[in-house]
């Protein structure tokens, strides 16, 4: 599809198809009220469920150039009982950005825990949008910190960077690392306005760290998908790493972070740190 007219017609066809596949009995609607000549719900029933007028549903299904608001698209998604993928498709068709409907990830699925382990000898970990660390392999624990020794409330990459005594001087370019972390958290905060735990974290950081409070006030926004860090490791010295952040398609609320040595000297340092890991 390349034109607005095509998208409008696809929206109309999609809404009709999803309405017609629904079983009235699933909604407690009696089929004896009127004979049903076509399958699925009637337009007036969808309109009632979505809280819009029948005429509005008719015009949408006739492809008459309407662009529903976010609230209307959300209401139609619920009325038509769309799957998450169908809901996203509907939002894409009307060129609106959906509200985040996923609850924040607080645990790692077993498949991703296994994947993090299988990435050895590359240091890897799994985080959510708050920077909570949900899973990790031995390599990243040796490179950064033994997360098993921390209470769950402290297994947060930003908390460690700002408030853990052993991490204050860990990053050579600490200001840049903190600045990028704050910019990511601001983007996450806007995308998850319902996440009170994230809001509480941000308040905690701002109250206890002047640098965080200053950077938060600058309102920079950036989602960092890859980058470079230089670590000051207490056992093997300087380690320069490249990192890549990947989002699993089935679990978009989680971020898989993978580190790789940026140069030969750093690879040698990692080899000394992780002597049991095969190359």
TrEMBL record:
CDD domains: HTH_XRE. InterPro entries: Cro/C1-type_HTH, Lambda_DNA-bd_dom_sf, MLTR_LBD. Residues 40-87 form the HTH cro/C1-type domain. GO terms for molecular function: DNA binding. SMART domains: HTH_XRE. Gene3D superfamilies: 3.30.450.180, lambda repressor-like DNA-binding domains. This is Transcriptional regulator with XRE-family HTH domain.
């Amino acid at each position: 599809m390349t034109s607005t007219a095509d998208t409008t017609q696809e929206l109309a066809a999609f809404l009709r198809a999803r309405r017609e596949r629904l079983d009235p009995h699933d909604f407690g609607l009696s089929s004896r009220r009127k004979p049903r000549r076509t399958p699925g719900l009637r337009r007036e029933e969808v309109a009632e469920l979505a809280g819009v007028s029948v005429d509005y549903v008719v015009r949408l299904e006739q492809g008459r150039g309407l662009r529903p608001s976010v609230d209307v698209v959300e209401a139609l998604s619920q009325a038509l009982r769309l799957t998450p993928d169908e809901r996203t498709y509907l939002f894409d068709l009307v060129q609106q950005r959906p509200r985040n409907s996923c609850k924040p990830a607080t645990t790692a699925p077993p498949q991703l825990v296994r994947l993090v382990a299988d990435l050895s000898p590359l240091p890897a970990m799994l985080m959510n949008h708050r920077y909570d660390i949900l899973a990790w392999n031995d390599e990243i624990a040796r490179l950064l910190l033994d997360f098993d020794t921390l209470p769950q409330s402290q297994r947060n990459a930003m908390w460690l960077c700002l408030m853990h005594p052993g991490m204050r001087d860990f990053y050579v370019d600490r200001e840049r690392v903190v600045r990028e972390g704050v910019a990511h958290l601001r983007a996450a905060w806007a995308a998850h306005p319902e996440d009170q735990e994230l809001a509480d974290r941000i308040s905690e950081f701002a109250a206890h760290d002047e640098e965080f409070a200053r950077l938060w006030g600058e309102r920079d926004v950036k989602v960092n998908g890859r980058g470079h860090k230089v670590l000051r490791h207490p056992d093997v010295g300087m380690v320069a790493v490249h990192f890549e952040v990947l989002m699993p398609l089935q679990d978009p609320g989680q971020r898989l972070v993978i580190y790789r040595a940026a140069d030969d000297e750093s690879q040698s340092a990692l080899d000394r740190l992780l002597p049991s890991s095969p190359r």
